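Example record used in the benchmark description.
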Amino acid sequence: MTVDWEELGWERLADGVGRRRLPVWDCTVGLVCAEGSALLVDAGSSLAEGALLRRQAQRLAGCRVGSLALTHPHFDHVFGAAAFAGARVFAAGDARPVFEGGREELSADAVRNGLDAGAADEAAGALVVPHETVREAVSLTIGGREVLLHDAGPGHTGHDLAVVVPGEPTVVFCGDLVEESGAPQAGPDAVPALWPAALDRLLELGGEDAVYVPGHGAVVDAAFVRAQRDALAERFGVTPGSA
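Model output (structure tokens):
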């Protein structure tokens, strides 16, 4: 039986590709599914949220989530990962040490941003360390469909992963390299001087006609990504082409 994406609160972006905007922090998760195989992009902000996403993704895909791509190591994107037992977990570049040694800081950041302290401690204690790290690019096959994972950063953090789903249209999950519902957030782990160049990489990966899915906010197009690149370059005093 076909399950309606919108009925479960998901936005269908292409055949077998969709995303959901989660409450509180307006964080996006993505799903790619085909022929009995599924990849989730990010995992929500708590174990309870991760469990909800697991159930919904399984209904939409008709199978368990076998792969999980974490776009960057911030609590609202990774704290639900432990709900996906058995999934192959991917992250960018040298992100593993952040997961291995950053549990206390992630929990503290979650509490500062309003997550219940008990839920934050629970999720930090169960935090999944990525099994595989992406240096440059990795190609996955999801039910016979190619999905590309790219180490697109640094920018929003030192470890920014983009997920590209070729098709009509191509869909690019950007993580927080792109934000639509507010100005991009630059915390202490951001790399401002290299952020505009990361957006240039996203534009090269997706092309002019792609759908770009920000980490927070509504889906955008290439023109929005280009404008945000220019705004970040001005904000951080980066000369185009110098990064």
